[in-house]
Specification:
Layout lengths: L2 H23 L12 H35 L14 H6 L7 H10 L1
């Protein structure tokens, strides 16, 4: 993937994430009357919103890091082994920082 296309895709992803994060940070419950029975589902909704916010924030950081790599001229190279990240991986995940092998190693360590 060429740098211009990568930058456009990353900037669009970033804008989408910023919108999603803004929505998730709003009051997910809204103003309405509650019964005691609603308390459990409201907690579940709040937990779900917090989980989605965590994922979106983590992905946002990865996108910002990818944009920095573009600026530095290191985009498309694995941050661990410095080998090229396959184009197919960058097409699927433009924010990918690692080649498939290094990402697999990282995930196995978790």
């Amino acid at each position: 993937m060429d740098d211009t296309t990568a930058r456009e895709r990353l900037e669009k992803i970033l804008a989408d994430l910023d919108r999603s994060i803004g929505v998730l940070q709003g009051d997910p419950v809204g103003i309405r009357e509650y019964s005691a029975a609603d308390a459990g589902s409201d907690l579940t909704d709040a937990d779900r919103a917090q989980a989605m916010l965590t994922v979106a924030t983590t992905q946002r950081r990865a996108v910002i890091d990818a944009l920095k790599r573009l600026d530095e001229g290191t985009y498309g190279r694995c941050v661990d082994c410095e080998k090229p990240v396959p184009d197919g991986r960058l097409e699927a995940r433009p924010e990918a920082a690692r080649c498939v092998e290094c990402q697999g190693k990282r995930e196995r360590r978790r």
